[in-house]
Amino acid sequence: MTVLSDQAESADPVSYDTLILGLGNVLWADEGFGVRTAEALNARYTFAPGVHVMDGGTQGIFLIPWVRSARRLLILDAVDYGLAPGTLKVVLDDDVPRFMGAKKVSMHQAGFQEVLMSAKLTGDFPDKIALVGVQPELLDDYGGSLTARVKARVPDAIDAALSVLADWDVAYQKRSEPLAETDLIGPGALAIDGYESGRPI
């Protein structure tokens, strides 16, 4: 689990205004869409204090404290909507949980639907919640990166995320220069360009 935002002062969950959460596993093809979109969003934009961009990976139940601590939650993920591969869809508020239960990495992992329901049961639940999701094309390719069709939707997902943030009156600003991969937080070997070029054909 990596807090990507350079506005984050701590890796511990505290009360904050907005959490932008990328979900998924970058080692399994289109499963990594949410994390890759969060990386790209953070590389290109800065946000107001109190806004955190986070790689939530496949942490499951360990994300509950983060969800409980956010006033607004924006989720980026690969979601099985039952639509054509590469289709991008934005879901808001009460409709979000029903789209979050399709994927589990193992039988022992809580899906994100359970994370949301657990947070709601505690009474600490975001006032606003949004899901920007893409229909994956391929998930069962260990070591593979995003398929071309899904990778092409990352800029559209960023635009959709920024639109949600604008509706929430969350301030953001485009960086004069995107962050280089060497400046990103997280294992350098998993930065998308190096990761894709390092896979044997």
What would the keywords be for this entry?
201 residues; single chain; 6-stranded mixed β-sheet; two-stranded antiparallel ribbon; Rossmann fold; alpha/beta
Question: What is the topological layout?
Answer:
Blueprint: E1 2-3, E2 16-23, H1 33-44, E3 45-47, E4 51-57, H2 64-69, E5 70-78, E6 88-92, H3 112-122, E7 128-134, H4 148-151, H5 154-167, E8 172-174, H6 192-197
Parallel strand pairs: 2-4, 2-5, 5-7
Antiparallel strand pairs: 1-4, 3-8, 6-7
Helix pairs in contact: 1-5
Molecular structure report:
There is one protein chain. By secondary structure, the chain is α/β, with parallel strands linked by helices. The protein has a single domain (2-197), classed as 3-Layer(aba) Sandwich (Rossmann fold). It contains 6 helices and 8 strands; from the N terminus they run ββαββαββαβααβα. The chain has helices spanning 33-44, 64-69, 112-122, 148-151, 154-167, 192-197, and strands at 2-3, 16-23, 45-47, 51-57, 70-78, 88-92, 128-134, 172-174. The protein has a 6-stranded mixed beta sheet with strand order 1-4-2-5-7-6. Helix 1 (33-44) packs across helix 5.
Which fold name is given in CATH as the topology?
Rossmann fold
Percent of residues in helices comes to 25-40%
Number of strands: 8
Task: Give me the CATH superfamily.
Answer: HybD-like
* Major sheet characteristics: 6 strands, mixed
Mean pLDDT metric: 81
Distance between the termini: 29 Å
CATH architecture: 3-Layer(aba) Sandwich
CATH class: Alpha Beta
Q: What is the helix tally?
A: 6
What pattern of helices and strands is seen along the backbone?
Answer: EEHEEHEEHEHHEH
Structural class: alpha/beta
Shape: globular
- Unreliable stretches (pLDDT < 50, length at least 5) are 6-10, 104-109
Please give the domain count: 1
The largest sheet has its strands arranged as: 1-4-2-5-7-6
Query: What quaternary form is this?
Result: single chain
